Structures are given as structure tokens and as C-alpha cells.
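Re: export button greyed out
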Amino acid sequence: MPKQLSLFSENKPGRISRITEILKNENINIKAITISSGPDEKYGVIKLLLDRPDDAFEAFQHNNIPSKLQSIVAIKVTDSPGGLNSASTVLANKGINVKDAYGFTIREKDLAVFVFQVDDVHETESILKEAGFDTVGDKELYYI
Amino acid sequence: MFFQKDIETMSRDDLKDLQLTRLTRTLADADGTDFYAKYFKDNKIDIKKITTLEHIKDLPFTTKQDLRTSYPDGMVAADKSEIVRIHASSGTTGKSTVIFYTQEDIDNWAIQVARALYSTGARKEDVFQNMMGYGLFTGGLGLHYGAEKLGCTVIPTSTGNSLKQIQMMMDFNSTMIHITPSYALHLIEIIKNEGYSHEDLPVKRAYFGAEPYSLETKEKLESLWGLKAYDCYGLSEMNGPGVATECEYQHGMHFTEDYYIPEIIDPETCEQLPDGEEGELVITHINRRAMPIIRYRTRDLTRIIPEPCQCGRTHRRIDRIKGRTDDMLIVGGVNVFPSQIESVLMQIPEVGNNYQIVLTRDGGLDKMLIKVELYSKLFSGELNELNRLNRHIVEKLRSLIVLNPKVEFLEPGTLPPSEGKAKRVIDTRQI
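Workaround output, generated via the alternate export path:
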């Protein structure tokens, strides 16, 4: 199963720079990043897709930055209108609650990758596979 | 098991006789000082008329301000050549208050602390690592001399240099530590990062000092370190540590009543309160030659426990200090003690041990913001979980302190380091 890394961060100048600095020093590549803010925008959570999430997790723990690794489900779709809609309709029909989702595109391959965060990653993956979606394994996702 | 059985288990009547003898001598000594000679005269006190312990309530109080007014030596009763040491309290406002000791005072203090340590189960076989500041502060040297008097091996590491502290602890098998609670919380994290678990630690007993700490903090520290912590009350004006200490039964702190006369008063009316009622602790030192202090207003809130203790000691006990009358924050007309906020935060595993209370005034309204560091290892990874946690803490606080505070999460290590005295309250309100 591919993994995403979530980080806690205060919302003040230099935080993203500090986090990316740690990744740079470890020679870890960022595939995707999302940032969401809490009340009064004082703090937030940063989610990262990385080529070496386990190493990154260790590096953040070592730097005492609150961080967590979570399994996610990723699928490949063609980069065209309606790509995400068809996948999310399948999940909705099966009663899967998507806690968080985001995506990124790979222009050279004309490909989009969608990431779903759900409670049961194994069930979700098999539902998507049965519906004909191309799920992405961890090695594949990290080295796209 | 007693260090001085005759004194510790003395009948109440004999103890009162001893107290009266010592009070009489103390008043005569005090009358020889510049400060008290004038004070007795101004308040029309004839010390010869103080013939029973009950008369103590007719004597005037001594305050911290009086100690400052008599700076540097207006309260010294002994000849200057007899003074062997001074200590001073960390005066954050105004002059520091200075306490003087003769050799007899230093010896008596050591006996008092040795007796206190013994009552917690400490013996001469113990190794005592003293991680408290030495110097003008009474805590470091006070316990140092007391532990030596008891016959323990004393390691005077003082504060700071955490890795050295850990190495000494492991190499010399320290069985007892004296440490500030905030440094204890910090040090155990470092100990864990060094790869030790609490089962590896030789420490069995801890004495936390220099900062107030809640029962929840004490329990948390006991489980993190795998030890027993004994409450120990003291203040520099009354020698320092050893004024009152928990015995092995850990149900209140036995007051060293052959050294002091404790009273509880209503801080508003200044009337004496009966045993069992909560109020401000007032102490008269009746066993110090260099510097007698009469009816000192400690500003600490507690009560005297009237029932006798199972341990057999006849010296009465006081409850844990609930707060200080001058630590009390008045926020939006509501009385709040920082210890109440701490006790809530200590029950929330997802937040760390360091916190700060920030008070501001906005359009005439008081606002309270509580900044607390997240605990790295229990981070959920989800913003909505954090928001839920935030609301949960606000709810718990609101049910305790009536106010509606804001809670802000910080990254670990953001607040000022917790070595030494931690600054917990920032009040930016303009009066």
C-alpha cells in the first residue's frame, strides 16, 4: 500500500521552508503536497506524497515534528474531464466515506493520479479494481 | 521508623510546651532587631504578655514587603560575626529578600531536612542526585546538607547538561533525585531518546521543587519515571525546603512543628481559621537564631489536616498547596489558578508538557489563550482530529474555570525551554 505523510505545522513564516529543507537534506522527492489550516489559521496539517515516505517519517520524528504515516489508495486515470467523477461515484455507491482526497498530473504521460484517504484501504482498493480502475502500488507511485 | 523518634512522636501537650518556650525566646530575640523593636512598639505589643500559644493571634503579621523594607539586615538578631551564610530569594519584582543563618541554624536546617527525607523512606544507603540550582536559592544547598546529614551519597550535579545528568544517574545508581517538575518532564524525554526505558532507571524517589505542580503532573511524572514523588514544602523565608514533607503514607505533609508554628487565616479578614478550613498559611519560625520571622504571610493556600496520621508522627499535616493568593489570575472577574489549567492539560495525552497562558484585553474584555505543544508521537495526521481535540480541551477547561479560553497548538520545542523555572503566564493586560 502506498503511504502519505502528514505533518503538523504552525502557520508562521519559515515553516514550509524548514520542512522542505529536511526533505532536501535527505534527498527525498515530493510528488504532491496539500496544506489545510485550522481555526484562526494559527496552525495546519501538511500532507505529502514522497518517493521515500518511511525515511522522511524518521527524519521528521528525529526533528521532533509531529508526523504520521498513513496508507492511502491511489488510482491512475487519463487526464481528461470526468476522470475523478467516475471513481468517486463508484466509491459513493459502495458507501465508502472519503476522508480526504487530492490528485496530481503527470504531463509527459498525460496521466492523472488520484489519492483517496479512507478507513479501509484494502476494501477500497478492491472495489476500485473490480470497477476496472488501475490502482497504483507503492513502488510504482513513488517512482512515477 | 523515625529519624528522631522523641521529637517526631512527642505528645501534643509536650510539643505545645516546646513551641511556647521557643516562641518566647524567639520574641525576645526579635525584640532586639531594628525591624521588630519598632514593629512591636508601633503595634503596642508587649511581648511579655504573650504567655500562651493562643496569644500568637495578637501579634502583627510579617509580609514579604517587610523583608524588603528591612533590607539588607534590619531583621538580623544575631551578632554579625555569628552569621555563616546568607541565601536570597529570586526577587522578580523589587529587591530580593535575604535570609541569614548562624552555624546553629545551618545545623538545625540539615537535621530538619534529614528528618524529612527519612520520613519518605530515604536511608543512608541511598544515592541522591541533586539537580537543583546551587547558590543563593535555598533548594539546592538545603537538600544537599540534609541528605549528607542523613548519610546519603550526594551527587551535586546542579541544573543543566542533561546527558551528563543521565550518565551520572546510570553510572552511580542514583536512587533519589531533586529536580524541578518541568526539568523532570524534559529530562525523561531525553532519557527515552537515549534508548532507556523507565525500568532501566535506578531512581526510586523524587522530590520536586521550585515550581508549583499539580497532582496530575506529579502522577504523570511518577509513571513516566517509574518512581514515587514526595511533596515537600518550603520557602526561603522559613529556611527553605523541609518546612513540611509527606511521609510514606503520602496523605498530606507533616509540618515540622518543633521548628514552626503554622496558622491558617482568612486572607481577607486576617482572622485565624480552625483546623480543617482552607485559607492562607501563616508561619512563625521558632527555631532560628540569626533571623526570627513572626507570623509570616506565605500567600500559599492550604488547610491543616486535623486527624492524626497513621505513621505515628504527632506533627500535624497540611494539604498540598492549592495555589498562591498572588498566583491567582482574575480573568473576566473569575478567579483562575494556573494549576487548574495545568491539571486539565496533563489529562490530555495528545498534548505535551509545556504550556503557556496568555492574557490579553480586547475592547474591555479579558481573553485567555492557552498555548500548548503537541506531543509528536500521538499526532493523528488529520486536521479535523486536531480541531476536535481543540474543542475537547476548551470544553474541559470551560467546565472547570467557567471562562471560554482559546487553545492554540504549537510544534514541540516552541515554548521556552523547561530547564529551571518555567514562565507559564504572560499577562499583557493594562490595568
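Chain A has a mean pLDDT of 88. The button fix ships in the next patch.
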